[in-house]
Specification:
Layout (H helix, E strand, L loop, with lengths): L20 E3 L1 E3 L5 H6 L7 E3 L47 E5 L2 E2 L26 H6 L12 H5 L7 H12 L6 H13 L3 H4 L1 H35 L8 H10 L1 H36 L7 H22 L1 H27 L4 H5 L7 H8 L9 H8 L19 H30 L22 H4 L22 H5 L3 H32 L20 H17 L2 H28 L14 H18 L1 H21 L8 H18 L12 E4 L7 H11 L5 E8 L2 H21 L5 E7 L2 H11 L9 E5 L9 H16 L3 E6 L7 H26 L5 H14 L11 H8 L2 H12 L9 E6 L7 H10 L7 E8 L5 H14 L6 E5 L8 H11 L11 H10 L6 H6 L1 H17 L5 E5 L10 H12 L5 E5 L11
Helix pairs in contact: 5-11, 5-15, 5-18, 7-14, 7-15, 7-20, 7-21, 8-9, 8-18, 8-20, 9-10, 9-18, 9-19, 9-20, 9-22, 10-11, 10-18, 10-19, 11-15, 11-18, 13-15, 18-19, 20-21, 20-22, 20-23, 21-22, 26-27, 27-38, 28-30, 34-38, 37-38
Length: 1099
């Protein structure tokens, strides 16, 4: 490997065997250069790895005598990193450069620390060198002081060794589970419910072995598809706490996640009551048999249920480790109970069991029970609805995702294996019980077949028992009648009772843990602000104790109500709604084609996931249609609520990805459609600068682009590129957020350029996408043009010329007070800052009121120092001084009022349209669109058109006809026949005084002097130019007189913009035209289209 062979490299190190990346420290001390040159040994470099040894410190070798140079240079991580924390350090003794691959560079090798989120619990986040640092600086200019070496080694913005060790200590007591104890055990316990012991035999009796297997299989299809989708989502990134809520919210966004999270947490809380009541009912049945009732069955259930849920709460609050141990014990009991059943099926049956329908394995019983025999009111779907809740519980492991060591591995592995094991158990129990027990039995040992009696053809008859009377009267035994068949069949009956206890208590315990965990994750995301109280966690494991108490109260309430038969179908549908959204999340993420969708679990298909979602929705209606409707209504209501509240979160959901894909597809599709005049709409570039600095300009533009056209707020940063780009990038998000906050449907775009005109030229050419390209430039009138530098005027007029060159229409807006309120914003920011400091100081003083003596004073000054409350010194900034010295009360008040004038509803009045020149119709279209808006609907259009004095009526009729064909409503039409007469002397004198400072007056000087003045001041207005365009100058002055006469009281004036011919009209003369044309008038829009039709009367 080629290495840096500089003579000042003198380090030796022991190379590693398997590592590829090298990091070297160079000493550039001139005093040691000679020693380095005399040393003939080749240099060696310490090799580091970012593989399994990522947590080891970097060992740096040194020669004898130089150890003190490196005592503090230790690295926690993979490779030494250089970034913004490296500051120039100039020393006469020792200077160090960081090396990667043996070369002098700031580039860092790939490390996991660079990709972590801030505040990641899995480790510190590091900041890689920015592109600016790598691009702008040479590595040899980046030096590190030995005194700051261990800060450098840890990277900029990441905790040091001490902080890292503290984090490790904090994590030391946290209990994390593997895939077996954390997922497999929980899912198996939750799926194996009471249904396995007291309802499965009845289901086989009703549906038969064949349809029973189909019912189990259909349920397993739903859970397996959901498990596959969940596995794909889990392996597409780090999974935090929150289970189903976390998976759905991060995939589909807060709207879906927030709605399902709340009802899922509630469903788990109520499920605690359901399982505990199931346990209490079994205990009460045992008390009945032993005649040991306390009060009555209902109250006994309440008493036992309340005591049970208190005990379960104690186990949960004690910590996840105790809860996990309890789950393992319950699983062992459950497995013993299941094994006890299978053992019982091969133990020879006695006469008592035979009379109750149990004959061990018999082919005749299997054949008889294979087909269905539904009783009155039952059918395939009703039986399926009863069984399906037994297959749920696959989210038990995912719900404690925050307590798993590796959720990405544990959830898929544990969940899928649990589904497989429990499915085998369900199928085994169903087939075995169907092959051993007949459907009906009397329980009478004397109901045997007497010799000579005709057999009725049933399996029991063939085995010596006559249960024929069960056809005419109800019997108490057999698959159809006895829910305790498994106890009867088992080798030891009490073990089945223990299994029932285990199944109910384990499910209740799992739900009692799941509900608070999911609810805490939901509250932490602050989607429902009123629930923020429950986000707090306690202890090493961040236990949601407040959530436990809330779940306990909900469970107790439903236990005391004891009316769970009504609520049970809704709870089942809540779980199914979660399954449906998990499947839909997987489909949606795949369909969105986001590059970020890269699940490690590859056994999935988006269409299969969609099928799973549809299947879940169908099963919801099969189980209970009204419960499904209630579920959808609640979810829809919560979805609307979260959408309305718009929580400030950004999780990179597939909804965002699909929005992008849809927008891209639509934009591409739009490019295939040719432009048509009927579909023309103003698509505007608005030169607002920062959108908050010229709100009135943005408001008037937004008024005619909202919901109909493109609006881009543009800003040009002029100056050194590096500084401009930095400022531009730092404010981009803030300014777009301001637009969103103020409900302005516009985009923000900015460019950095050497001059203002170049920046605008770039925007005019490159803004937009496909057919969504700007066709109109909107700018504010340059009110201070007479005081502005010449370059600013040249740029201002130049961008108008550029717009016309690019065939883009131009709108210039003028209001009396001007648009720029940046000075007002500066004052407001300063006042807000001072107010915050005042409040902070008051809070500090209040906190220290109770303290006495010098200790309290010291604490006060200490806190004040932290708050950085210091005496404010006057600034030398000219703009601030100007603000402080001006009459803020009067001037700023008028400016603020003017800046909001287009936000208000306009009073009843008129919009006067002076359509003097045909520009394709833009001058007429913009005011028409304005009249369609609520704020302008009370303003009527008055049309003013130039014409001949002797043809006023004919011109008026012709214009009315044209407008009616355009289907544009108007209040009145005025034909102005005296536009071209000379203005009065006073008006013309005002114009002459206006341009006097900018005139060359070359006709009054000799030829040589005149030529010299032209060369020195080419921007001045020449006498020849003024004479050549005198008629046009007359027209502008005369138009102002007419506007003063006819439109002084209008709400808005829309006027054809005069065009300055390039090379003929000087910039100052053109500005004088605009000034005299719009002087002392209401708000004016000077409009000039690109002379292509934007109006048509053809259908």
């Amino acid at each position: 490997m080629s290495l840096n062979n500089s003579s000042n490299i003198f380090l030796d190190s022991v190379p590693s065997n398997t590592n590829r990346f090298q990091v070297n420290v160079i000493n550039e001390n001139h005093e040691s250069s000679a020693a380095a040159n005399d040393d003939t040994d080749p240099p060696h470099y310490e090799e580091t790895s970012f593989g399994d040894e990522a947590q080891k410190r970097l060992r740096i070798s040194f020669r004898p005598g130089n150890q003190e140079c490196y005592d503090n240079f230790l690295q926690s991580g993979d490779t030494a990193k250089t970034d913004a924390s490296f500051h120039a350090y100039d020393s006469h003794t020792k200077t160090y450069y960081l090396q990667t691959f043996g070369h002098n560079t700031m580039d860092a090798v790939p490390k996991i620390e660079y990709y972590r989120n801030t505040g990641s619990v899995s480790g510190p986040k590091a900041n890689r060198p920015s592109l600016l640092e790598i691009h702008e600086q040479l590595a040899k200019n980046v030096v590190v002081a030995p005194s700051s070496a261990d800060r450098v080694a840890n990277g900029d913005g990441i905790p040091g060794d001490e902080q890292a060790e503290n984090k490790e200590d904090d994590q030391a007591g946290v209990v994390k589970f593997g895939w077996v104890k954390g997922v497999l055990v929980r899912c198996m316990l939750n799926i194996w419910g009471v249904m396995l012991f007291i309802r499965l035999s009845w289901i086989v009796g009703e549906a038969g072995i064949g349809l029973g297997v189909i019912i189990i299989g259909l349920s397993v299809v739903v859970t397996t598809l959901t498990g596959i989708s969940m596995s794909a989502i889990c392996t597409n990134g780090v999974v935090r706490g929150g289970g189903a809520y976390y998976l759905i919210s991060r995939s589909l966004g807060p709207e879906f996640g927030g709605s399902i999270g709340l009802i899922f947490a509630f469903a788990n809380a109520v499920a605690v009551a359901m399982y505990v009541v199931g346990f209490a009912e079994t205990v009460v049945d045992l008390l009945k048999e032993s005649d040991s009732m306390m009060v009555d069955p209902t109250n006994d259930i309440r008493i036992i249920g309340s005591i049970t849920v208190v005990i379960l709460l104690g186990i949960s609050v004690a910590g996840m480790e105790w809860e996990a141990k309890a789950q393992v014990i319950l699983l062992v009991i459950l497995l013993i109970a299941i094994a006890n059943f299978f053992i019982g099926t091969v133990i020879p049956s006695n006469n008592e069991k035979k009379s109750r329908g149990f004959f061990n394995y018999q082919a005749s019983i299997f054949a008889e029970n294979f087909g269905p025999r539904f009783t009155k009111g039952e059918g395939f779907f009703s039986v399926f609805a009863i069984f399906f809740p037994a297959a749920t519980g696959i989210l038990a492991g995912a719900n404690i995702s925050g307590d798993l060591e590796d959720p990405q591995d544990a959830i898929p592995r544990g969940t899928m294996l649990a589904i497989f094991i429990t499915t085998v158990a369900y199928l085994g129990v169903a087939i075995c019980v169907g092959a051993c027990v007949v459907r009906d039995a009397t329980g009478n040992v004397n109901d045997t077949i007497i010799s000579g009696m005709n057999c009725n053809g049933s399996a029991a008859c063939g085995l010596g028992y006559d249960f024929s009377r069960c056809r005419h009267e109800p019997c108490q035994y057999g698959l159809m009648n006895n829910f305790q068949v498994m106890s009867m069949v088992s080798g030891f009956g009490p073990l089945i009772t223990a299994g029932i206890f285990s199944a109910t208590l384990s499910s209740a315990l799992a739900s009692l843990v799941s509900a608070p965990k999911v609810f805490q994750a939901l509250c932490k995301d602050n989607i429902y602000k009123a629930l923020q109280f429950f986000a707090k966690g306690y202890g090493k494991n961040n236990e949601p104790l407040r959530g436990y108490i809330l779940t306990f109260l909900i469970a107790m309430a439903f236990i005391l109500i004891a009316e769970l038969n009504t609520i049970a179908p809704i709870i089942s549908n809540f779980f199914l709604a979660s399954y449906a959204l998990i499947n839909f999340s997987c489909f949606h993420a795949s369909y969105a084609k986001s590059p970020g969708w890269r699940p490690a679990y590859g056994i999935y298909n988006m269409w299969v996931s969609l099928f799973g979602a549809v299947l879940c929705c169908a099963v919801m209606f099969v189980i209970n249609w009204w419960a499904a409707v209630i579920t959808y209504v609640i979810e829809f209501f919560l979805y609307i609520y979260v959408t309305y509240k718009k929580p400030e979160v950004n999780w990179g959901s597939s909804t965002q990805a699909l929005s992008y894909v849809s927008a891209l597809d639509n934009a591409l599709e739009l490019t295939t459609v040719e432009d048509h005049v009927k579909n023309f709409r103003p698509q505007c570039i608005v030169l607002t600068g920062g959108p908050m600095t010229r709100p009135a300009l943005l408001d008037i533009t937004h008024a005619f682009t909202k919901n109909s056209g493109l609006c881009i707020c543009c800003e040009v940063f002029v100056g050194p590129r590096k500084l401009c780009v930095k400022e531009m990038n730092s404010g981009m998000g803030k300014k777009q957020a301001w637009l969103i906050k103020n409900k302005i449907k516009a985009f923000y775009a900015a460019v950095a350029a050497d001059c203002f005109r170049d920046g605008v030229r770039s925007l005019l050419q490159a803004s937009g996408l496909g057919r969504m390209k700007p066709n109109t430039l909107v700018i504010g009138y340059k009110k201070n043009w007479r005081k502005a530098p010449l370059t600013e005027i040249e740029n201002y007029v130049g961008i108008i010329h550029d717009a016309f060159d690019f065939e883009i229409g131009v709108v210039i807006v003028r209001i009396s007070q001007g648009f720029d309120i940046s000075q007002v914003l500066q004052v407001q920011e300063e006042l807000e800052r001072l107010e915050q400091e005042r409040l902070a100081l008051e809070a500090t003083i209040k906190d220290n009121e109770c303290q006495e003596g010098s200790g309290g004073i010291r604490a006060l000054f200490k806190k004040a120092g932290k708050l950085n409350i210091t005496k404010t010194t006057p600034k030398n900034d000219g703009s601030i001084n100007t603000i402080q010295s001006m009459h803020v009360g009067e001037f700023n008040q008028k400016l603020v009022e003017a800046s909001t004038q287009f936000k208000k509803k306009q009073e009843k009045g008129t919009i006067d349209v002076w359509w003097l020149f045909d520009d394709g119709g833009l001058t007429l279209l913009i005011p028409y669109i304005l009249t369609l808006r609520k704020k302008w609907k009370d303003c009527k259009l008055r049309i003013y058109v130039g014409g001949k004095i002797n043809r006023i009526e004919e011109e008026k009729i012709a214009m009315a006809s044209l407008l009616s064909k355009f289907r544009i409503k108007f209040a009145d039409i005025h034909i102005i026949g005296d536009i071209n007469i000379k203005p009065n002397k006073e008006s013309w004198k005002v114009f002459e005084e206006m341009i006097e400072p900018y005139r060359l007056h070359e006709s009054c000087k000799d030829l040589t002097t005149a030529e010299k003045l032209k060369r020195e001041t080419p921007w001045k207005i020449t006498d020849a130019e003024l004479e050549a365009v005198k008629e046009k100058s007359y027209r502008q002055v005369r138009l102002n007189e007419l506007l003063q006469e006819h439109s002084r009281a209008a709400n808005l004036i829309v006027l054809s913009l005069p065009v300055a011919r390039k090379g003929s009209i000087s910039d100052l003369l053109y500005m004088a035209w605009l000034e005299i044309l719009t002087k002392n008038l209401p708000p004016v829009l000077l409009v000039r289209g690109n002379h292509k039709n934007v109006l048509t009367f053809y259908s």
